[in-house]
Amino acid sequence: MSEYSRRAVHATGVGMPLIYLLGVVSWDQLRLFMIGVTLIVFGLEFLRLVVGINHRIYDELTRAYEQDSVAGYALYMTSMTVVALLFGPVVALPAILMLALGDPVSGMLGKNGPHEHKRLGVVAVMFVVCVLLAAPFTIPWAGVAIGAVAAAVGGVLAAVADGVKPIIRGVAVDDNLTIPPAAAVGIAGVFWLAGVDTGIDPFGF
User: How many domains does the chain have?
Assistant: First the structure.
């Protein structure tokens, strides 16, 4: 699978926020659905890494450096699900969209290895995309001034998480794991400092 095809698959994650925004499912139903998908994904990873059952889909979805470790698509689902469980829609949805849509955009603008940071120009584009994704949620919730600041801070943290890869014991932390939490903390932090309801709803079914 080409990188463009891989990015297109990545972007299909927008379907999860979309079914909520269209009123197909409630917030609690969406969170339960995401938990289910995450469990299935880790079941597949268990079969791949522990049992040794390989399938063509693994070759399509994983890169060479992921052959012996948990793949990016599993980290992708994990981070989005955790954010959905910990925060309400106004914080979680933009954070999820920053990964589902922002990350593929930045990925198409420049290639970088698993241990390489992205170019400053790519980080800047990622920031702009993330702000545009967050603003329709944060501004109606908190007003223009606070909402814009929340979108900007969330965008900055998401762009940094996307572009700067911390190395822990020689292993680069995958941005699929870091983008949504970074964005969510940024948005919720601004709301908290401004005395606005943060939308935090930990496991509140």
Answer: 1
Tell me how far the alpha carbon of residue 136 is from its chain's centroid. 17
Please tell me the distance from the alpha carbon of residue 78 to that of residue 191, in angstroms, as a whole number.
Answer: 24
Structural domain harbouring 12: 3-193
Following CA atoms 116, 75, 125, 16 in sequence, which dihedral angle do they give, to the nearest 10 degrees?
170
Phi, psi (rounded to 5 degrees) for 62: -110, 150
Whether 51 has a pLDDT exceeding 60, the answer reads yes
85-98 pLDDT tens trace: 999 999 999 999 99
Expressed in angstroms, the distance from the first to the final Cα of the chain is 38
Helix (H) or strand (E) holding 167: strand 167-168
* pTM to 2 decimal places: 0.87
